[in-house]
């Protein structure tokens, strides 16, 4: 072990000059000489190794680590030192290198110079955006004899390990030093012990056992061994490190690898990408590690003076986001900015594997391009695992174990789990912390895997595969009523649907996804998206589709169209079609649902006689196949019919009977809807304060759980109406905007404007009230629906209040404006009208 690294410490004095390490300065006489950083590092390197000639290659490697420099740069620095310090200070040894020749003056009062053996570069590039990770790594090192930094190729494992090693070396903890061994060029596991011996200076006799010699040499030494790039010889590294941990108690190991060594006593640190802002226009963008690194590298490439404009900063942030904060990818992107500008680089990232190349000449081959870095990781996988990685790239937004199994047709789940385990270990797939186990690829990895897939199968259609898998997942999710899992899958479903709508042969997949996601989206309150999707695929519903799918489609279109979301005639027509198909299919259960929903649809049109007919049919269907849930839902509609007739006592009786059944059978969603219905009935009777209390209590049961969106919107609407009816105007204003947001999600904002008009009129906002009345009237006429009793009351009260302040011409004008307003414009109107009171309200009902 011959390389020495000086610890910052005492001044070193020579005949004509002195070196002050603490200040990184050289003094001649009474003043410091103007010496650059490279020249200082060169002088220190030569002085520390004054006993030998230092080869040019070693000087270039240690004074300019990670950079490609011309040899004349070294000559310039040598000339500078000779000019400032004297021509006899450094000798040139032709064909070999340079040697420091100035004799040192010993100072009896000065402490002896302390040296630390090792081979770390004298200067490290700054470590940007990794302060927390560096602290974590140093803590881990204190707690374990072996720490392995794991992560994707190009994630910055080496830079972090080198920074930690520098700090540990400076602490003087390892008398025999800190030694870095790059294993990149170790092409065979058998060469690993020999490489270690060469770096550490361990002598091995001809034909001797290099591993045994290395272990014997290190057994009683205290040193830090940094093993970089272990993944391709990981088993051999694990063997030799395991022996060191067992037999060399004072040797600590810091390893970088794409997978753990899996040793007892090993501490694994997973290195994630650099932090990126959540949006491209984030105000604090420059505080994120990825942006810091990209900006620093762009400035270096452009002469150090680059100051991006606001738009250029947005482009740079988006580059960071699209490249997942991967340091190596950002380095390549920075090198392209001088030529293409930030916008040009950003616009070409769809071809990132070809764009991002041209790394440092001193970099390993695998770090000369993004493609090469990913290929390095890829070639370490078995062919079967490679194939799994390629196939999984079809998912744009991560995937569940169920989706992966559906895609791959994995008969043995254990095989799939084993492949996923390997990919997670290699950081090619990242586990997602969520309510359900889920995994994702970084966009950069996904682009590489997709490229591999297309090269192997030129005719492969990822859109078709995604649509196939998502169709099946949607059916399974609807059958299981697994709302959480389906909400996680919705980004993938949207991508698959976008493809299917452009492909004439994908009608079955498109209608399947839309129909079965409606089952999940509607209870969550996302009815607008579900209904829009159903209407988009309506032209695709034909006799070529299976009758079961068509029947479910028409049922859900009619079911979501109730309450005026679609015109009443279309709603009724869809439900009648579905009912006829279910009758042919002999599906009594779904026929019962169609009859209930037909009753609700006619309830909204005022045809109470038809409501009675459909409820009679539903009761008959129950006789053949009684199900508690069906009876509960039919009784609820019976109660709504009684309310419409003004028979509130009967309405409450039906609701109470249904509630008892729902509680007995654990039908939670129906239970909450029924409690809301009873509160609405109390409001119609005139018990406004009691209704408000019931709605308030009901809202505490919802929280933010998925699956209660419709019931929560209805309860919020009832609370606002009850507060207005009770004369609690300030409280009503405080709940109004949240109610409006819930109704907008439920696609019913325009249909519920009468209640907001009543509140606006009570607040003296007469023109706003008139606009809201106009919007409500337009909704009722276009959808051919009647208002419920509370909406009728709200409209009468609002009209009476504004008649006192607006003349006929003014009222007509403002109502006309309201009838032309869309949902976004109505929300803006409500915000202007009610926001001042809402801004100070901190205890909204949940």
TrEMBL record:
Gene3D superfamilies listed in its UniProt record: P-loop containing nucleotide triphosphate hydrolases, Tetratricopeptide repeat domain, Winged helix-like DNA-binding domain superfamily/Winged helix DNA-binding domain
CDD domains given in the database record: trans_reg_C
A Pfam family this chain is assigned to: AAA_16
Keyword Nucleotide-binding assigned: yes
DNA-binding region(s), residue ranges: 9-102
GO MF annotations in UniProt: ATP binding
Domain of life: Bacteria
Domain annotation OmpR/PhoB-type: ranges: 9-102
Keywords: ATP-binding, DNA-binding, Nucleotide-binding
PANTHER family for this protein: HTH-TYPE TRANSCRIPTIONAL REGULATOR RV0890C-RELATED (PTHR47691:SF3), REGULATOR-RELATED (PTHR47691)
Protein name stated in the entry: ATP-binding protein
Native organism: Pelomonas candidula
């Amino acid at each position: 072990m011959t390389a020495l690294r000086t610890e910052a410490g005492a001044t070193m004095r020579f005949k004509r000059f002195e070196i002050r390490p603490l200040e990184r300065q050289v003094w001649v006489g009474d003043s410091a000489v103007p010496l650059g950083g490279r020249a200082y590092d060169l002088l220190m390197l030569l002085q520390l190794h004054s006993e030998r000639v230092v080869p040019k290659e070693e000087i270039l490697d240690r004074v300019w680590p990670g950079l490609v420099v011309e040899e004349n740069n070294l000559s310039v620095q040598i000339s500078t030192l000779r000019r400032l310090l004297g021509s006899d200070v450094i000798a040139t040894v032709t064909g070999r290198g340079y040697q420091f020749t100035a004799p040192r003056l010993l100072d009896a009062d000065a402490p002896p110079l302390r040296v630390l053996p090792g081979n770390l570069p004298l200067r490290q590039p700054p470590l940007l955006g990794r302060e927390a990770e560096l602290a974590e790594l140093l803590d881990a090192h204190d707690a374990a004899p072996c720490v392995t930094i794991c992560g994707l190729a190009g994630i910055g494992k080496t830079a972090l390990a080198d920074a930690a090693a520098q700090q540990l070396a400076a602490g003087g903890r390892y008398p025999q030093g800190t030694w870095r061994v790059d294993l990149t060029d170790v092409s065979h596991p058998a060469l690993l012990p020999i490489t270690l011996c060469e770096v550490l200076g361990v002598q091995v006799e001809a034909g001797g056992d290099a591993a045994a010699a290395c272990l014997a040499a290190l057994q009683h030494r205290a040193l830090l061994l940094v093993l970089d790039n272990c993944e391709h010889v990981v088993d051999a590294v694990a063997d030799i490190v395991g022996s060191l941990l067992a037999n060399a108690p004072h040797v600590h190991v810091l390893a970088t690898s794409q997978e753990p060594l899996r040793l007892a006593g090993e501490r694994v640190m997973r290195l994630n990408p650099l932090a990126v802002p959540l949006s491209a226009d984030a105000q604090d963008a420059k505080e994120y590690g990825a942006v810091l690194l990209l900006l620093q590298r762009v400035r270096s490439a452009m002469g150090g003076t680059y100051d991006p404009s606001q738009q250029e900063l947005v482009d740079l942030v988006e580059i960071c986001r699209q490249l997942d904060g991967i340091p190596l990818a950002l380095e390549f992107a920075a090198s392209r900015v001088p030529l293409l500008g930030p916008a040009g680089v950003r616009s070409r990232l769809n071809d990132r594997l070809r764009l991002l190349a041209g790394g440092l000449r001193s970099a390993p081959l695998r770090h000369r391009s993004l493609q090469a870095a990913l290929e390095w990781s890829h070639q370490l996988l078995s062919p079967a695992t490679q194939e799994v990685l390629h196939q999984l790239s079809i998912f744009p937004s991560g995937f569940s174990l169920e989706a992966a199994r559906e895609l791959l047709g994995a008969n043995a789940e254990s095989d799939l789990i084993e492949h996923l385990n390997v990919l997670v270990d290699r950081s090619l797939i990242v586990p997602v912390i969520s309510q359900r186990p889920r995994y994702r690829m970084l966009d950069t990895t996904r682009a590489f895997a997709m490229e591999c897939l297309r090269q192997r199968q030129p005719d492969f259609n990822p859109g078709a595969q995604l649509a196939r898998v998502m169709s099946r997942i949607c059916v399974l999710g609807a059958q299981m009523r697994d709302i959480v899992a389906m909400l996680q899958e919705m980004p993938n479903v949207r991508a698959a649907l976008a493809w299917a709508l452009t492909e004439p042969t994908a009608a079955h997949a498109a209608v399947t996804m839309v129909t079965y996601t409606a089952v999940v989206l509607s209870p969550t309150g996302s009815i607008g998206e579900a209904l829009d999707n159903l209407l988009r695929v309506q032209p695709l519903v034909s006799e070529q589709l299976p009758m079961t799918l068509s029947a479910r489609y028409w049922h859900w279109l009619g079911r979501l169209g109730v309450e005026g979301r679609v015109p009443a005639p279309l709603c009724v027509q869809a439900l009648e079609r579905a009912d006829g198909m279910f009758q042919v299919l002999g599906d009594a259960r779904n026929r019962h649902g169609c009859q209930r929903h037909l009753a609700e649809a006619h309830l909204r049109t005022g045809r109470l006689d038809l409501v009675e007919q459909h409820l009679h049919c539903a009761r008959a269907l129950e006789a053949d196949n009684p199900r508690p849930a069906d009876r509960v839902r039919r009784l609820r509609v019976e109660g709504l019919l009684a309310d419409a007739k003004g028979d509130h006592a009967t309405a409450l009786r039906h609701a109470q009977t249904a509630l008892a059944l729902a509680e007995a059978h654990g039908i939670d969603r129906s239970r909450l809807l029924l409690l809301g219905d009873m509160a609405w009935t109390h409001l119609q009777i005139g018990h406004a304060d009691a209704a408000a209390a019931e709605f308030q209590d009901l809202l505490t049961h919802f929280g933010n759980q998925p699956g209660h969106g419709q019931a929560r919107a209805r309860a919020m609407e009832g609370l606002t109406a009850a507060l207005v009816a009770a004369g609690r105007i300030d409280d009503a204003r405080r709940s109004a905007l949240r109610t409006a947001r819930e109704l907008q999600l439920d696609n019913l904002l325009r249909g519920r404007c009468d209640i907001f008009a009543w509140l606006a009129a009570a607040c003296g906002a007469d023109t706003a009230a008139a606009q809201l009345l106009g919007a409500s009237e337009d909704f009722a006429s276009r959808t051919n629906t009647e208002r419920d009793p509370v909406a009728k009351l709200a409209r009468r009260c609002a009209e009476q209040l504004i008649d006192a302040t607006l003349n006929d011409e003014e009222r007509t004008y403002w109502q006309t404006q309201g009838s032309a307003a869309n949902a976004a414009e109505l929300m803006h109107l409500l915000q202007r009208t009610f926001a001042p009171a809402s801004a100070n309200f901190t205890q909204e009902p949940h």
